[in-house]
Design a protein that fits this description.
By secondary structure, the protein is of the alpha/beta class. The protein is built from 15 helices and 15 strands. β1, α1 (26-41) and β2 (44-50) form a beta-alpha-beta unit.
Length: 449
């Protein structure tokens, strides 16, 4: 292994991060899982992100191998609405203050200690800082010891990126073949490295809690949808399908968790016009509380969870539901679908960036924006429970192929290519870090006669 843990430091730059304040979508989940997995493998890892202003500026995890550095906190203290509140001011502060601090406090000491550094920038917010970082490293004579990758998780902000400058500063990567095509349209050919999920997410929730929530729903179709209130997530199609099923005599319960986006008002209004009864509640902390809410409000067709839903709760909700509606029309990767598979749930995905999803094998894949297609698929899994069970089993198998430890194996091989592309001097790796070839020993031949 060229970039072995003793010789390599990883740095991840991302506006989103592990704090509740810092999570607005899949990016925060991605960097949280990736940084923790790198540290668990043995890499010294630094995660820079726009963190909660009330938490420490620096925080260590994984026996000191993972260091959180919360940036722009003085701005976040005046913008309490989440990571993208005060976005432009944070970008300016990030570009001005982060590159020199990163070089002085992480990169220069690592190079002096004989290590190489891998810097991974995430999304358009970090594109300018990647350029500034590369230029400063050249000026200080350190550029040939740093591998720089910039990753696109979505098309947000593409119009603001100086693509030619970014391609000179870093090797461009993305998370799916669908996103690769989107970047082709900008004149560049990125490397695809998929997203991953924590190994710990592949586990069975308490079966009693799952059964209790499912029984409390008391529905022919019990579904869940989580994500930003964004038209690309096809919320209106999901709600239309639920309304259709109700008008045709089916008992339907739809749990939803969106964000603060304006489209949320349109979603709720559309549900009401579909004849659906909507209630709004704070997200329960325990499965028993959710089951109690469902029993107390049997008239509610749509239950809108208005606050953060913990990973532990999601681990119960996913398998308790008949289907989790991750039916986006534009999905760069579709991390929710993988998380559903890992928890033993049944994912309904779109057909864009979800490279891992194969219809009727490990998921239900919607090919159109027609609500009737979703209605048909929901009826299918109700009428064919053995098929639904098989999809859940195969989904779990798929999830195991995307745990972060396996994705990082791909990442490290791509880092070697990026290092060659950027003329980075490689560390001198001792023989103890090279995997020895297996020797086959011949069995002694037995004598005959």
């Amino acid at each position: 292994m060229v970039f072995a843990p003793p010789h390599t430091v990883f740095v991840i730059l991302s506006f989103e991060g592990p704090d509740v304040y810092s999570q607005a979508g899949g990016l925060g989940v991605r960097v949280k899982g990736l940084s923790r997995a790198l540290a668990q493998i043995g890499y010294q890892t630094y995660l820079y992100f726009c963190g909660d202003p009330d938490l420490p500026g620096e925080e260590s995890h994984e026996s000191g191998r993972l260091v959180y550095r919360r940036w722009c906190q003085w701005i976040s203290a005046r913008h309490r609405g989440g990571v993208y509140d005060g976005e432009e001011e944070k970008i300016r502060d990030w570009n001005t203050s982060l590159p020199p601090s990163l070089i002085d406090n992480v990169i220069a000491p690592a190079v002096e200690a004989g290590r190489n550094v891998v810097v991974m920038g995430e999304e358009w917010h970090t594109s300018w800082s990647m350029n500034l970082l590369s230029e400063t490293l050249y000026y200080r004579g350190l550029r040939d010891r740093v591998v720089m990758l910039w990753n696109a998780n979505n098309t947000f902000g593409f119009h603001r990126i100086n693509w030619s400058a970014l391609a000179l500063a870093a090797t461009i990567t993305t998370v799916s073949r669908y996103m690769k095509f989107k970047i082709w349209e900008r004149g560049h050919n990125p490397i695809v490295i998929p997203n991953g999920i924590p190994r710990a997410s592949i586990q069975d929730a308490d079966p009693e809690a799952v059964a209790d929530v499912k029984a409390a729903a008391a529905a022919d179709h019990f579904c869940f949808k989580i994500g930003r209130f964004d038209p690309d997530k096809r919320w209106l199609i999901a709600v239309s399908a639920v309304g259709y099923l109700k008008r045709h005599g089916k008992r339907v319960r739809l749990l939803i968790r969106g964000g603060r986006e304006p489209h949320g008002g349109e979603v709720i209004s559309h549900a009401q016009h579909q004849g659906l009864k909507v209630i709004h509640i704070n997200s329960p902390a325990e499965p028993a509380e959710l089951a109690a809410v469902l029993r107390q409000h049997p008239e509610a067709d749509v239950v809108n969870l208005t606050s953060f839903v913990s990973d532990a709760m999601l681990g119960v909700i996913y398998p308790a539901c008949d289907a989790v509606l991750a039916n986006s029309g534009h999905e760069p990767f579709g991390l929710v679908g993988l998380e559903v598979m890992a928890a033993g749930g049944l994912a309904v995905t779109g057909a864009t960036g979800e490279d891992y999803a194969v219809s009727y094998r490990n998921a239900l894949v919607l090919e159109t924006d027609d609500a009737i297609e979703l209605v048909t698929e929901l009826n299918l899994i109700q009428q064919r429970p053995r098929l639904a069970a098989a999809i859940r089993r195969r989904g779990r198998v798929t999830a195991r192929a995307y745990v972060w430890q396996k994705v990082i194996e791909q990442l490290l091989l791509r880092v070697e290519y990026a290092a060659a592309q950027q003329a980075v001097r490689l560390p001198e790796v001792g023989s103890e870090y090279l995997r020895p070839a297996r020797r086959r020993t011949r069995k002694p031949e037995t004598s005959i006669g």
